[in-house]
Amino acid sequence: MADDAAEPKSSGSTTDGEPESAGVTAYAGQAPPPPYRVMAADRWALVAGLTAVVVLSALVGWLGFRAYQSHTAEVQRNIYLEVARQGAVNLTTFDYQHVDADVQRILGSATGSFYDNFSHRSRSFVDTVKRSQSKSAGTVTEAGVESQTRDQGQVLVAVTVKTVNSGRAEQEPQALRMRITVHKVGDGGKVSNVAFLS
């Protein structure tokens, strides 16, 4: 019995009341890795994950920006094209009976040096059209943007013009080519220069 008192019986628990198996880890039969290795592996995984997120975010942002730029350039291109087409029609379509309104329509869609030049010559243009009792109708047959920047675009426009003068036989349609410069004004554009091409 004295031996019984000297040796405590194994009750499956330690002196602090926790089961003995609590100290057993998943590394049974082998030494656990040093704690700094586990922390280093976790850090590398975290760094790699964060790097991937940053790279993907940058890529998505760059692609989004490029798509926005492309869309903006396409919208500008369409504005330049439409303004140039309408400008060509305005320049080649007039009627002696309401030529003053036709001139105002041209000036309303003009800006810069073209506006200045046309406004100075408009009086003689009106007089000539009224004197010859001319009627003219222009139709755009082709148009394309030659070049563009953020603020302006150059558009090549091909126009067929039918002109009738009082007391004369109807003339053959005339083919004209123009290089029209459109300057951005607000959300739209206005014609700032017109050059007739041979």
Automatic annotation (TrEMBL):
Keywords: Membrane, Transmembrane, Transmembrane helix. It comes from the Bacteria. The chain crosses the membrane at residues 44-65. The keyword Membrane applies. Residues 1-29 are annotated as: Disordered. One of its GO terms (cellular component) is membrane. The keyword Transferase does not apply. It is found in: Membrane. This is Mce associated membrane protein.
